[in-house]
Design a protein that fits this description.
Blueprint lengths: L24 E6 L7 E2 L5 E8 L7 E3 L8 E2 L3 E6 L5 E7 L2 E8 L4 E5 L6 E5 L5 E4 L5 E6 L13 E3 L9 E3 L8 E3 L1 E5 L7 H5 L6 E5 L5 E18 L8 E8 L2 E9 L6 E3 L3 E11 L5 E9 L1
Parallel strand pairs: 6-12, 12-21
Antiparallel strand pairs: 1-3, 2-5, 3-4, 6-9, 7-8, 7-10, 10-11, 13-23, 14-16, 15-18, 16-17, 17-23, 18-21, 18-22, 18-23, 19-20, 19-22
Amino acid sequence: RTNNAGFANFPMSVKSRKAVIRKPGNWRFVVSVPPGWQAKSENDIQSRHFLPLPGSPAGMVSQEMLLPVGLAPPRRVSGRVAGDGPATLSVSGDGHVLEARTLAPGAVFSFDLAEEADTVSISGEGLERRLTLSPYSADLGLLSAQRAGIATDAALETIGFDDVTSRTFRKIPAGHAGLAWRNLNAMARDYTKDSQGYVNGNVSGDHVLYTSSGLPAEFSCERPFGFHSVMLSAAWLASEGEVALIESWLGEQLIASDQITLSALTPLHYAPMLKAVTRVRLSTKHYWQMVVDDLVLTR
């Protein structure tokens, strides 16, 4: 398995029985591509010849390194449509509509996105939404006319977590970015050994947030703000497929409740695009840690 820097190191020695590579000759290396992913570099199978060389660290050498392999996750847009009316989902790239789909009331949808897709738009009575796509899959949550959406021309503010601490770890302080925070810690992506999600869930800078001990966490403000989107991941491969519950309140009223599936291999761009909330609660079904990065709001 690769380390946190993305390198796969194969112990080799002509003397040690514990070594993976124990004798000179031709060796074949195969990358285990996750289900649904693609090896874009088309070199996920490579071969190298090892020559005996007494006095070298392993007693044998290869004349060249293995080439880096580029892996890309699938990219989809998902969500649900409330029962109060149909909607139209349009996918665009470079200003041109690539495809448009009619979404029936009550529909659950998940569509693959073309490589050139950069924007998703939703239209329908009370359902106007527009999302600039990231390199990752997006989940729009429940599309409902009862959920007031953020204006498509609203100014967006991205909150990162690199300025919480210059060190490796700190509980996020109250007042950071003008919000109250509960049970969320800021941590350098490589602070925890052998954690996949803390590395893969980091989309900007070097720090992420995570839900401490896997317990429910919140961010809030007495003054309503727009909850546009956030990047969410599972912290560990052991929790691959964990279900997260994201609940949003306006005052004492629960206005949105969405369940999404997390991965430790890649973040999910959760984008409810809610116009006004005062509190957002993050939790996981089995109390695994959730990784948070790039929270996007409107004020």
